[in-house]
Amino acid sequence: MTDAFIYDHVRSPRGRGRPNGSLHEVTPIDLASQVLASLRDRSELDTSKLDDVIMGCVSPVGEQGSVISRTAVLNAGYDQSVPGKQLNRFCASGLEAVNTAAAQIMSGQSDLTVGGGIECMSRVPMGSDSGAMHADPAIAYKLYFAPQGIGADLIASLNGFSREDVDAYAVESQRRAAHAWDSGYFKNSVIPIKDHIGQTLLDKDEHLRPGTSMEDLAGLKAAFEMMGDQAGFDAVALQKYPELESINHVHTGGNSSGIVDGAAAVLLGTREIGNSLGLKPRARIVGFSSIGTDPTIMLTGPVPSAEKVLRRCGMTTRDIDLFELNEAFASVVMLFMKKLDIPHDKINVNGGAIAMGHPLGATGTMILGTVLDELERRDLNTALVNLCIGGGMGTATIIERV
Amino acid sequence: MKTIKFAVDSDGIAIATVDVADKPMNVITPEFMDDIAEVAERIRNDDKVKGAVITSGKSSFMAGADLKEMVATFDQRTDAAEVYAWCRKLQQAYRKVETCGKPVAAAINGTALGGGLELALACHYRVVGNDPKTKLGQPEVQIGLMPGAGGTQRLLRLMGIEPTLRLTTEGTHVTPEKALELGFVNEVVEPGREIEAAKAWVMRGEDATPAWDQKGFKVPGGAGLMNPRAIQTQMVGTALLQKATNHNYPAPIAIMSAVYEGSVLPMDTALDVESKYFTQLLMHPSSRNMTRTLFLNKGAADKLARRPEGPAKKPVAKLGILGAGMMGAGVAYVSAYAGIEVVLLDMSAENAEKGKDYSRGLLQKRIDRGKMSADKAADILERIHTTDDYSKLKGCDLVIEAVFEDRKIKADVTAKTEAVIAADAIFASNTSTLPITGLAEASGRPDQFIGIHFFSPVDKMPLVEIIVGEKTGDVAIAQALDYVQQIRKTPIVVNDSRGFYTSRVFGTYSKEGITMLSEGVNPALIENMAKQAGMAVGPLAVTDEVSLELSYHVMEQTRKGLGADYKPSVADDVITKFVKELGRTGKKSGKGFYDYPQGAKKHLWSGLSDHYPQTAEQPTPAEVRKRLLYIQSIETVRCMDEGVVTHPADADIGSIFGWGFPPYTGGTISFIETEGLEHFVAEADRLAATYGDRFAVPASLRVMAEKGETFYGSIGAKSKRSAA
């Protein structure tokens, strides 16, 4: 098997996913194109050498429809010989795109690829593509569908995580993210996004709320209580989890991932093509796995996907220096730490989506890059990147520096 | 044509009048299906006919299908293709009416339900007489079915997804005014002018192509999964539906699916889809169960199927009630409401007045909600005469005692009452625990002594259990039943035994839950699985509501009554511990199995696990559910074996309307038939081996299973055993 190496990665800053967000005026195709252009320019890449550009996108409709990666390739001025494909594994799309781009290399079918992701949640709202899973009555009924927030609260209830516990996690995420930004840990990978006349619109994640305290968070309303109670989803979830008397709704806007706009891309290739293009490999893709879990609680994929990829790679959690698990909700990461006995100082060390936001299709790419930068900064070796996924799935990737 | 009169008037308008012979209301019979198809042919082919009006020759327009035939369909036809062909027949006949090429209007002169309303929907224009008593709706879901003659698809195309789902998944009916507002009728006119108005529309000679058969038609409000409103309706609607049905009722979700899938299809394909969902429901046991118990058997019980034929009908003109507590007060209310003069007697006139206050409160609520005039409420209250004087009972046709559950007190009031009432008056006890035969020993005329067991709250609970003591005579049974009919409740007739039928079987349910708690089963799992099985309240919650103290009292009474025959149970120990050691006596005292914090939702007492630590290995949810349902059915079979209940219909009705055994099962006996006797016996054997003798399979059931018999299949033989 050929090794797939990471040569570079870039990401946009994350703009608030609302009409007042700094990236709201940027079309998804423009945002994706700026990221691809930057990836090319940083390495002075001859794009005619690229075999494929694969981008994750969770709501590939409207502005994000019709294979946005191919459109972005053309719009970014890549050589027209470069194809593009778009894939969707919900929240892990950005990581799955990297895995797939790596897989093409590892299988010997490509030499140089880009894996990335895009989601402008302020312009193409979550759920815009709809789907049988939640909206076809027979299917939603058969699968006991409940929205992800209910699953997050269900995880907390089953594991005894209190509101204070999840808020404390969120406070720490904010603290770490602010510290990382202040210390310049992200500066090499985040590119400024510009408007039509070349002015910078945003060069920093703007969802952060540095200095967030427990008191600040305590005042927030449980976000999924009404949905659980009045829309019937608590009852549906308890039908699947009858061991619980009730669901304790602990998640709020403050301890859940933020809705943001963003894009990211990773350049992958064989050792040979790196040599020929004068690129220095930064890390190797050791392995990756995806797995399916109960769709109702939905967010318990990270533990089994991590176990699966570790098993495949002949490793244990002790072989991993840093973990990066998307902070979709505080309880998701807390469950992971609890089940796999991961100390907090080894996971999400520079904060995560609670502080900086979760641009669905792009997050997987972003956190892979974030943890690679951090391995380099700390001069550590291995990392496991992982996300919980809609529909009850998990995708995990292990990288090691070279 | 036998069921439809067809005449063409001088204007060239055909008037088709549905009038199914020998039926009080028009129902859909096999002849009608042929006739309505022929009507469509005649309208289409007769050049003299310019258009048509379809109306009814009865005071109502048309009710739905003949349900006896529906039940037979489940039991006789198992081939989906055959059932599909059968249920397409009416739907396709209606489609012929709709596509006959000439304008057809429905003149709806009264209630139109189910297949009746669907006939009107297949017409191009609907006129309805403005009588608020006219009911328009699709109630099929209430017996486990769905509209199958185009109802889901035409309502959808007339009103949109959301209003269609509301009307069809809840099975509610609406008034003509409301139907006009919703948009599924076109015109509301003065009663009696329906045909005239319908004809006037036909005479206008408008295009007879339905809107949905024309190019570019769109479902009002939008449809399909790219329409945000439709998505929201379906996503939240499906969750709420699961909350309401616990996945036990296939009909509501089938309706939702037919509407969802049909909303993006052309009409003929959409009708196909409707038929396929209808076919599945018709072949599902829940529709057979619900139709049989909730409609056919309940209907027969309401018509007093178990009444002895001999004694003449004798309504109660004056009723005596002893004890103005909660039960007595409730009985007074429902009786006075039904027009009966009531003497409400208690130890003091003041207490009796308190009992009357219950009626005052309920009536005031009706007045406040605009459901009753103040005058009518005053009339009802005037019929309730409160007293502490036994001589006031003179002239009562029936006296019901609802005093404390104590044999001595009951004997005392029996004697005092019999001293003043007429020789032919009936005396009834509302006891729920003490055998009637024993109580009748205090009576000088035990043949006129009977049990009339009400359920609490009396004004809400639809069932009355009539208990026949050893010496109770036919006249007492007949008159007790006549009285139950007077107050518009549903009677079952059972023979005497401790706890009779309903309390006895229901007791096994709460006890099984308590037993599981003592075994270390997670109490949330017990309560949730009871609710998921379709029981209204979990066994622990219901014990709290009844009060642990009362359970303790009943247990003590039974222990005394039975002496050495008393079989102690694990649940007894739990109840004793809660009442005697822990002082947790139930909901009223704010603490039982649950805590009841003020102003907040109740929750399971956190101390439960201290006394009954949860085992590491918990049973599967399915096993918990099975124990809770099987124990009730097994006890019901014992009741039938002992002759306490003599007919499976009574057992089924009593279980659903008496203590809320889940309706989709059809009742405790139908549940066994649904499981399949052979399977039920095998599972019960396993449960008995695992959990104890209370699950032991009665020999009679084992024999039936071996012979391949069913309870309802052998009704003839069983009912001969009837003591009632």
Tell me what the structure shows.
The complex is a heterodimer of chains A (about 400) and B (about 725). In chain A, helix 1 (about 30-45) packs across helix 2 (about 70-75), helix 3 packs across helix 15 and helix 6 (about 150-160) packs across helix 13 (about 330-340). Chain A has 15 helices and twelve strands. In chain A, strands 1, 2, 3, 4, 5, 8, 9, 10, 11 and 12 form a ten-stranded mixed beta sheet that branches. In chain A, strands 6-7 form a two-stranded antiparallel ribbon. By secondary structure, chain A is an alpha+beta fold. Chain B has about 725 residues and is of the alpha/beta class. Chain B has three domains: about 5-285, 2-enoyl-CoA Hydratase, Chain A, domain 1; about 320-500, NAD(P)-binding Rossmann-like Domain (Rossmann fold, 3-Layer(aba) Sandwich); about 500-620, N-(1-d-carboxylethyl)-l-norvaline Dehydrogenase, domain 2 (Orthogonal Bundle), CATH 1.10.1040. Chain B is built from 30 helices and 19 strands. In chain B, strand 18 and strand 19 (about 605) form a beta hairpin. In chain B, helix 5 (about 150-160) runs antiparallel to helix 6 and helix 12 (about 285-300) packs across helix 26. The longest helix of chain B is centred in the C-terminal third of the chain and has 21 residues, at about 620-640. Chains A and B meet through helix 4, helix 5 and helix 10 of A and helix 9, helix 10, helix 20 and strand 19 of B.
What does this entry show, briefly?
Chain A has 402 residues and is α+β, with helices and mostly antiparallel strands.
Low-pLDDT runs of chain B: 716-724
Helix content of chain B: 40-55%
Query: What fraction of the residues of chain A are assigned to beta strands by DSSP?
Result: 15-25%
At the first level of CATH, the class of the largest domain in chain B is Alpha Beta
Taking all Cα atoms into account, the compactness measure Rg of chain B is 28 Å
Unreliable segments of chain A (pLDDT under 50, ≥5 consecutive)?
A: none
Average of per-residue pLDDT values of chain B:
95
Tally of extended strands of chain B?
A: 19
CA-CA gap between termini of chain A: 17 Å
